[in-house]
Design goal:
Strand order of the largest sheet: 3-16-13-15-14-17
Structural class: alpha+beta
Oligomer: single chain
Number of strands: 17
Number of helices: 9
């Protein structure tokens, strides 16, 4: 779900088994234990990219004829995302040649693009350690909220910039009392863990750090988990992006799991939509539920110069709606083309597309695991929140020169 994050995958938002668990980010600090199986969206804040990996035991050499949907996909729609990946991949020796060749391909010629991949790449089918070639495919998105520069009327929920007292610790050189956590603050001569979500609000430490005030506290929470999002400011008729800047260092905890553990819903009921409905039915318990996740994300403001360009993922290139995914970078090399064969949310209709592994998420773990970026806005959020499908994954790697 936008990485950097869990940008974390944003990062980085599956959504709900995700949502309430990609992610993108940046994808959370091993939120797997509080993630997808409990219907919560992954936290996409703070996951770094890693170099490409060699072929592993989880990759089985295959051929394009074995990939369901390969011939039917319109690869022209995936080409811009691939070119974006090449801005990073071309710095690596094994990718330099193919990325150079890509610049000579006619972007409007689907046949030429298909020929480029079939002649220059080998598809590797991903399998789990137990040999299973099917895994969980979830979805995430970039939220769109309504907001204001000032607190007034319905705009009562703030999203914040990084506080000045937040310290990022280098574990190798951290003082003994700071071992085991990555974010802290100085109290006297000691470094102590940084404030939890609940402590941040009860202490008032965030006063003066407000970037914008938004109308919906529930959507504000989900934006925190996704790692980035857009805010429309009706007073000035502009849309800005709040991009991941930092986080308070506490492990992400799934609010979906919290509700399941409290007996408020069953595992099968846990979804983004059902959690939102529960919050609507229990407004007096909103703060209790939010505080069950001690993690808190801070943002920075960015201009949205092109509405079609998504937030940056862990690869540090903009994500492309329905053509970018978050992966486990320990299993799938970040940046590479991936063919995803799954189904539409809550459906048996095929969703078979060439996508790019451009993001990561703390809850995205395993060789056959992906978080599908649906884009931004309300419709994308509905699709992402409902997506919890089984699927197969093929990684495309350049042929040896």
């Amino acid at each position: 779900m936008l990485s950097h994050r869990l940008r974390l995958s944003l990062l980085a938002v599956p959504v709900l088994l995700g949502m309430f668990a990609c992610s993108t980010v940046q994808r959370p600090d091993s939120t797997t234990q509080a993630g997808p199986e409990y219907g919560d969206m992954p936290d996409y804040s703070g996951v770094p990219g890693v170099p490409g990996l060699p072929v592993s035991k989880n990759m089985q050499a295959s051929h394009f004829g074995a990939i369901p949907g390969w011939q039917e996909d319109d690869l022209r729609q995936a080409w811009p995302a691939f070119i974006a990946s090449c801005t990073v991949l071309a710095r690596r020796v094994e990718w330099k040649k193919v990325c150079k060749q890509a610049r000579r391909v006619n972007v409007n010629d689907g046949v030429a693009i298909r020929h480029f991949f079939e002649q220059g790449f080998v598809p590797y089918k991903m399998t789990a350690d137990d040999g299973n070639d099917r895994g969980l495919i979830t979805g995430y998105y970039e939220p769109l909220l309504q907001g204001s520069r000032k607190q007034h009327g319905e705009f009562q929920t703030a999203l914040h910039s990084v506080p000045p007292d937040l310290i990022t610790l280098n574990q190798a050189g951290a003082p003994p009392e700071a071992k085991g956590y990555l974010k802290g603050r100085k109290v006297g001569q000691k470094i102590v863990p940084y404030w939890t979500r609940a402590e941040l609000f009860s202490s008032g430490i965030l006063k003066g750090r407000e970037l914008v005030w938004v109308a919906d506290p529930v959507e504000a929470f989900f934006l925190q988990v996704q790692g980035s999002g857009r805010v429309y400011l009706p007073e000035t008729n502009e849309t800005i992006r709040l991009a991941y800047a930092d986080q308070n260092g506490h492990v992400y905890k799934s609010i979906g799991r919290y509700l399941v553990d409290k007996g408020e819903m069953t595992l099968s009921q846990a979804s983004a939509q059902s959690i939102k409905k529960w919050l609507k039915d229990h407004p007096n318990r909103e703060r209790e539920l939010f505080n069950a996740n001690p993690r808190y994300v801070f943002f920075r403001e960015e201009k949205v110069t092109n509405a079609s360009i998504g937030p940056k993922g862990a690869l540090n290139v903009p994500l492309t709606g329905e053509r970018s995914i978050a992966v486990d970078p320990g299993m799938v090399p970040l940046g590479v083309p991936v063919f995803l064969a799954t189904t539409q949310p809550n459906s048996s209709m095929p969703l078979q597309k060439l996508v790019m592994a451009q993001d990561t998420g703390y809850a995205i773990r395993g060789a056959v695991r992906a978080d599908y970026f649906w884009g931004y806005g309300y419709e994308a959020g509905d699709r992402a929140g409902a997506m919890k499908q089984q699927g197969q994954v093929w990684v495309l790697l350049p042929k040896a020169s």
